[in-house]
Amino acid sequence: MLRLHPAHPTPAPAAPTRRERRRFRRSALSERVRVVAGGRSASAELIDGSAGGLFLRVEGSQRPTAGSELEVGFGAGSYGGPARTEERRRARVIRCLSHGDTHYLALRFHTPDALRIGATRLG
């Protein structure tokens, strides 16, 4: 007699896999940045700036969708330090992985100088 067992439940598509989480692992080079979307601003952490764009970790209940536009402010006061002059650039979300209220964003900037600013912050 053949017995059929139900398939194992698959994780929700919004949850990143273990492999994807490793890709977004935090590096020692990080800086506080601010993400402004829809009039609200959220604190974010820059985790990588070496892949032709920037990868950010953002805490918040609203999940940004791929293709949406964000404004990123660099130099928004680093780790509780004194606030510096903030430089803002527009960016498009290429990919968003979410785990609860933590979102990992891959961004591509509209202007080439924004990436240079991000690279200067890292180096």
From TrEMBL:
Residues 20-113 form the PilZ domain. SUPFAM superfamilies: PilZ domain-like (SSF141371). Pfam families: PilZ. GO terms for molecular function: cyclic-di-GMP binding. It comes from the Bacteria. Residues 1-23 are annotated as: Disordered. This is PilZ domain-containing protein. It comes from Phycisphaera mikurensis (strain NBRC 102666 / KCTC 22515 / FYK2301M01).
